[in-house]
Amino acid sequence: MTIRILVADDEALLRMAFSTVLETQPDMAPVGEAADGIQAIRLARDLRPDVVLMDVRMPGTDGIEATRQVIRISPQSRVLILTTFDLDEYAFTALKAGASGFLLKNTRPEELLTATRSVAAGDAVVSPRITRRLLENLRPHIPDGSSAERDGRLSRLSAREREVLIKVGCGLSNTEIAATLYLAEATVKSHLGRILQKLELRDRIQAVIFAYESRLIHPA
């Protein structure tokens, strides 16, 4: 399957650079370029890309609001945020807006390609540092003790699926989960797919948040 990609960045040279890298891959096809958030929203509506590479700071409508609008009008599209600014508030806001990934623009080309494929496949791509800070940011808002009942959706999961979700919530990769639970990595991936479907979650990051908010994992 060819991954159809929209590139949104206010710098023409960067748009060209990203598109050039993507064009070298047999499974990827740049389908459009946007110079600002409004254009990104319009092209996402018209082209329905699989992945949008989205800059944060753009004139007019920024990448965060554009992400929110793209997810609303084209739910099947995944947004991968690319920025030169390694600031946590961008990551938190972008993920809350529905982005499936957050990378810096100095990421190596091969890492960008891997991240694009992962996001297109429905996974989430966020650096471990950002994930840790995300969880730290969530902790003050997560109930502890028995003051709140667990999310009823947990009852939809099998015992094994709960085990996998706990490991995901602890920040383990599929490879690490497979080694810890003595499963094949493909089996872990299948479990995660069913977990997301049963819990009506979009991606791995939402699964991490759910694991904490449902008190399946204690914030401490």
From TrEMBL:
InterPro entries per UniProt: CheY-like_superfamily (IPR011006), NreC/VraR/RcsB-like_REC (IPR058245), Sig_transdc_resp-reg_C-effctor (IPR016032), Sig_transdc_resp-reg_receiver (IPR001789), Tscrpt_reg_LuxR_C (IPR000792), WalR-like (IPR039420)
Database matches in SUPFAM superfamilies: C-terminal effector domain of the bipartite response regulators, CheY-like
GO BP, one annotated term: phosphorelay signal transduction system
Domain HTH luxR-type: 150-215
A Pfam family: Response_reg
Keyword set, alphabetical order: DNA-binding, Phosphoprotein, Transcription, Transcription regulation
PTM-bearing positions, type 4-aspartylphosphate: D55
Residues in Response regulatory domain copies: 4-120
Positions in coiled-coil regions: none
A GO molecular function held by the record: DNA binding
Record's keyword annotation contains Coiled coil: no
DNA-binding keyword on record: yes
Protein name: Response regulator transcription factor
Organism, scientific name: Streptomyces buecherae
